[in-house]
Amino acid sequence: MKILVTGGAGYIGSHIVKQLLQDKKYEITILDNLSTGFKSTIEKLISLAPKRVKFIKEDLSNFAKIRKILKREKFDEVVHLAAKLVVPESLDFPAKYYLNNTANTANLVDNCAKYGVKKFIFSSTAAVYGEPKIKNLDGLDENSIPAPINPYGYSKLFSEQIIKDIAKTNKNFKFVILRYFNVAGGDVDGVIGQSTLNATHLIKVASETSLGKREQIAIFGDDYDTDDGTCVRDYIHVSDLANAHIKALKYLNKNRSDTFNCGYGIGYSVKEVLETMKKVGKKKFKIKIAPRREGDPSFLISNNKKIKKMMGWKPKYDDLTLICRTAYKWEKKL
Question: How many CB atoms sit inside 10 A of residue 16's CB?
Fold first, then answer.
């Protein structure tokens, strides 16, 4: 079984590849331009199974090259993660997000459908939901009406629609769209983790601050309509998210294309996360209150009943302390 993982040198992609390697039927090709991924991560993954992993350094914007690769390799399955994902950056450079995320995805999906890919797993985001009108403690389900509030969210929503439309033209091409909530933590074995430079993810930044790599950490707004005034998010451990992709591939063996939320259905505020990291690192660190960031919803929690019921997905690491501990340990290792 030949599978392509775009963005496989990155944070989430590397964890997916590591789990795919547990199934010896897979021959894995990682395609990455290394703009945010790391060659050292690729080398670690290849060392785990040298005969079953190969790497192609390429940018998805090179449409001619991507077409040739898909035509030549004849992949059975594709997991597509390569994308830009920083909300504030998307507000400053929207065209970059539509070109990189949406246009590149359109070309990739079109060629996947043409050259025999049977299963396509797409890395989407809870940002497609925008700012929920009502604080629903049960979380947003897949029937919630998408209403992005930033170009990043729109770039992913447009990509979702492109995938659906192309699938309608090819009965042999099936997909699963996975809408991620806030991904965090590191591989429990300590082999890989989040190495992102200039990271903006809260738990990654909190780990860096706890270890003295940053002087302080900012809370962007403490006047939201939440219990402590800071944004509330659903944090999912990266290994549980990776497992959702494995489940999605198996799901498509006997089921039709569909969309699923990936989260725990539990919300934690920014302040709660920072207090947890202080306990994990056994160290206080400086926190400053900064103005709100444009494009940040106040409350975003997943309703994960659908993925649990239909895929039989069972999270193993749904514990904020564990998520923070694995992130901290990896950061310390770096």
Answer: 29
Q: Give the separation between CA 67 and CA 209, rounded to whole angstroms.
A: 43
Backbone angle region of 56, left / alpha / beta, with phi > 0 → left and psi within -120 to 50 → alpha: beta
pLDDT tens-digit series, residues 117-129 = 999 999 999 999 9
Query: How do 119-125 and 77-80 pair as beta strands?
Result: parallel
Domain over 2-184+235-263+302-313 is classified CATH 3.40.50.300: no
pTM above 0.90, yes or no: yes
- A 10 A CB-CB count for 71 gives 12
Please confirm, yes or no, whether 224 is among the known catalytic residues. no
Q: Mean pLDDT of all residues in the chain?
A: 95
Q: Which of 97, 129, 152, 251 is catalytic?
A: 152
Please report, for the chain, the start and end positions of each structural domain, with discontinuous segments joined by +.
2-184+235-263+302-313, 202-231+266-300+322-333
